């Protein structure tokens, strides 16, 4: 079992801690707004009775602050401004002290080392204005898993205060690039959603492209030149095992998993023509879904698996099309100016993200599956390859800001706000966001 793929077990126990939970939360963020004042939230270091407990508690609190601030929805307050110094999270806070520093919410936490290989974390989220506890939880894991604890707590806060599922306990698989433009080394790599824990999964001996996670986050499908002909591979994160997916006579590329993880959909080139095929991973049987003389590529399933969006030039220019999962009912959905490519269906099912090229610029945009309400979120010299967060509220993509500049991964909120570069070890492209880690 690889270090990257090692299963990190965390026990979550939902408990009512001393104070009764309310039937509803008084604090709520409307994350659909394009312009939003971030919610002020106070996150003191988690308390502990020993130096190791306090050290890990401070790391967890710092991670939560960074996660929430990076979302653009929260404004973690400077701990130096805190008036009350909490020593016992089972005692109700002095809410007046937190209102003075204009905090709307307060997170109180405690860490207890029960043994060398087990720690317990307790925390409470408070509505400062209503003087009410919003949630109280207890988690247990090993000390080396403190980052996952911090990410999971961040997800709890995000969900409680926005009403949406969080996305912090996730990873990003991408292509790490190095070397001159004429001889690039492209390796499969993985990071936590905040850029931490970078790990290379392939050696770089062969070029790899377009990695995509399975719904379980334990498998990756990607394209590689390892077998001379460009082919689709499966990579098991738990074991590090790689295998070619099928024995196709031509080049295969642009693979993606079906929502239930039992199939992989891809493009296959035969006789100089590219069509969409799907393979059942259990039987290895394959089915051809398109048979036009055009270039059909970049397929992506809808979340319920009933439809597929893909890119085709059958109308004369690259545009977006939707068909049923069996290949029937194909119809065009993009009608704006420019060329459309790299479509990917939102996990919520309400939108399709895409890359658009127009007048020498590249854009990341979204539209409804019916093809209407198109919105452009980013514009640059080269923006391409969007990937959705598991809650369908944030997009990551590849950006080259100018000719000759190396590619990097950026993220943006669905509203078009909060544009940020993602930390990676060097140049990076082709990001794919994992589901929430189980």
Structure description:
- The protein is mainly beta and 438 residues long.
- Helices cover 10% and strands 42% of the residues.
- The chain has helices at residues 51-71, 95-100, 146-162; strands at 11-14, 39-42, 74-76, 105-115, 118-127, 132-141, 171-178, 185-192, 199-200, 208-213, 219-224, 231-236, 242-244, 252-257, 263-270, 273-280, 286-288, 296-301, 307-312, 319-324, 331-332, 339-345, 352-358, 361-367, 375-380, 382-388, 394-400, 408-413, 420-421, 427-433.
- Strands 1-6-5-4-2-3 form a six-stranded mixed sheet, covered by helices on one side.
- Helix 1 crosses helix 3.
- The protein is globular, with a radius of gyration of 23 Å.
- The model is unreliable at 1-8 and 14-25 (pLDDT under 50).
Distance between the termini: 17 Å
What is the residue-averaged pLDDT? 92
Described by strand count, sense and barrel closure, the largest sheet is: 6 strands, mixed
Alpha-beta content class: mainly beta
Question: What amount of the residues lies in strands?
Answer: 35-45%
Given the structure, what is the number of helices? 3
Strand arrangement, major sheet: 1-6-5-4-2-3
Assign an overall shape.
globular
- According to DSSP, the number of beta strands is 30
Portion of residues within helices: 10-25%
Radius of gyration: 23 Å
Poorly predicted runs are 1-8, 14-25
């Amino acid at each position: 079992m690889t270090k990257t793929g090692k299963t990190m077990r965390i026990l979550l126990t939902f408990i009512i801690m001393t104070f009764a939970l309310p039937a509803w939360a008084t604090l709520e963020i409307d994350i659909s707004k394009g312009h939003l004042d971030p919610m002020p939230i106070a996150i003191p270091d988690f308390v502990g009775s020993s130096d190791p407990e306090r050290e890990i508690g401070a790391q967890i609190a710092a991670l939560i602050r960074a996660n929430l601030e990076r979302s653009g929805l929260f404004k973690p307050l400077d701990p130096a401004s805190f008036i009350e110094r909490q020593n016992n999270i089972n005692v109700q806070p002095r809410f007046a002290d937190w209102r003075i520093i204009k905090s709307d919410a307060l997170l109180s936490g405690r860490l207890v080392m029960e043994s060398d290989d087990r720690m317990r974390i307790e925390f409470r989220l408070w509505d400062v204005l209503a003087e009410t506890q919003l949630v109280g939880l207890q988690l247990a894991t090993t000390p080396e898993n403190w980052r996952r604890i911090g990410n999971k707590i961040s997800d709890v806060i995000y969900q409680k205060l926005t009403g949406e599922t969080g996305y912090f306990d996730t990873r990003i698989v991408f292509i790490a690039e190095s070397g001159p433009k004429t001889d690039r080394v492209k390796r499969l790599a993985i990071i936590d959603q905040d850029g931490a824990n970078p790990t290379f999964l392939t050696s770089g001996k062969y070029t790899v492209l377009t990695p995509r996670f399975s719904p379980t986050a334990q498998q990756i499908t990607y394209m590689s030149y390892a077998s001379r002909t460009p082919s689709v591979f499966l990579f098991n994160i738990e074991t590090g095992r790689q295998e070619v997916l099928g024995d196709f006579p031509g080049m295969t590329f642009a693979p993606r998993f079906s929502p239930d993880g039992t199939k992989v959909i891809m493009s296959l080139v035969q006789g100089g023509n590219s069509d969409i095929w799907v393979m059942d991973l259990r039987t290895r049987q394959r089915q051809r879904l398109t048979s036009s003389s055009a270039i059909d590529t970049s397929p992506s399933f809808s979340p319920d698996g009933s439809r597929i969006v893909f890119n085709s030039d059958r109308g004369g220019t690259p545009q977006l099309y939707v068909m049923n999962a069996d290949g029937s009912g194909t119809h065009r959905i993009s009608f704006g100016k420019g060329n459309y490519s790299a479509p990917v269906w939102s996990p919520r099912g309400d939108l399709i993200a895409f890359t658009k090229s127009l007048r020498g610029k590249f854009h990341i945009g979204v539209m409804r599956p019916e093809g209407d309400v198109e919105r452009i979120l980013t514009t640059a010299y080269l923006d391409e390859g969007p990937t959705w967060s598991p809650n369908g509220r944030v997009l990551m993509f590849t950006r080259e800001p100018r000719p000759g500049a190396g590619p990097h991964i950026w993220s943006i909120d669905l509203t078009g706000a909060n544009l940020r570069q993602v930390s990676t070890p060097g140049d990076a492209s082709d990001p794919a966001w994992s589901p929430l880690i189980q």
